[in-house]
Write a structure and sequence with these properties.
3 helices; OB fold (Dihydrolipoamide Acetyltransferase, E2P); 5-stranded antiparallel beta sheet; 2 domains; about 130 residues
């Protein structure tokens, strides 16, 4: 069976094209895909498929997904992540600041607006770092 990658697939229209490793692109309909795959099929996904002659050229039959496409966004996000030793320092600093704010709250005081703004920015940055996971 030939193998290739998904060139593009439009789940709403129910068709797309596969690029063969050694040959021309092949038309693929949603009904040639395994159940539930059509909505999640992304360009670059490795597939194996049979080929039949259709009215307008080669068509893929019995498509089998071999592997998911690598996520460029995920790889870029992983490259931007801080190193664990950097994260330790950030978390320790935020913990100290939050403990001081907690002490103020225990004594019935809200934090100074400037301090509150810095803490909020720090917490957002930390949340963004965790969101990269």
């Amino acid at each position: 069976m030939p193998t290739g990658k998904v060139k593009w697939f439009d789940a709403d229209k129910g068709f797309g094209f596969l690029s063969q490793e050694d040959g021309p692109d092949v038309y693929v309909r949603a009904d040639a895909l395994p159940a539930g795959v059509a909505k999640t099929l992304k360009p670059g996904t490795r597939v194996e498929f049979g080929i039949a002659q259709g009215r307008r050229g080669d068509q893929a039959l019995s498509v089998r997904v071999l592997g998911n496409a690598t996520s460029v966004a995920r790889n870029q996000a992983a490259a931007k992540r801080k190193k664990p030793d950097e994260m330790v320092v950030i978390i320790e600093d935020l913990t100290k600041i939050l403990e001081r704010i907690e002490d103020g709250y225990r004594h019935g005081r809200h934090p100074d607006p400037k301090v509150a703004k810095r803490v909020a920015e720090g917490l957002r940055a930390l949340a963004d770092e965790f969101d990269l996971l």
